[in-house]
């Protein structure tokens, strides 16, 4: 269950990052509201996961899902560049997440 909470928390981090970008600096109401709701939900699920997962593991996985998810969404939806170096960087983040999971109990 903590891993499910952590995965959902990471996905909500992607949601709030995208909504924040869409809010144009918190000048648009609905994207700003989505940002705040997704942030609170993401932090709450992260806190639940941290009840039984090590701090370092939970935080690395949470930020990694958010970083790589935002990167992919930026390419797919916002037309951001998918250069070879950026792709390698994202793959290194994923590799770090996998290693952290393999090295952690639970």
Automatic annotation (TrEMBL):
Biological process, per Gene Ontology: xenobiotic detoxification by transmembrane export across the plasma membrane
Annotated TM spans: 27-47, 59-79, 85-103
Superkingdom field: Bacteria
Topology with respect to the bilayer: Multi-pass membrane protein
GO terms of molecular function: transmembrane transporter activity
UniProt cross-references to Pfam families, sorted A to Z: Multi_Drug_Res (PF00893)
Principal location listed in the UniProt entry: membrane
Localization in the cell: Cell membrane
Record-linked Gene3D superfamilies: 1.10.3730.20
Keyword tags: Cell membrane, Membrane, Transmembrane, Transmembrane helix, Transport
An example Gene Ontology CC term for this record: plasma membrane
Family according to the record: Belongs to the drug/metabolite transporter (DMT) superfamily. Small multidrug resistance (SMR) (TC 2.A.7.1) family. Gdx/SugE subfamily.
Protein name per Swiss-Prot or TrEMBL: Guanidinium exporter
Organism for this UniProt entry: Tabrizicola oligotrophica
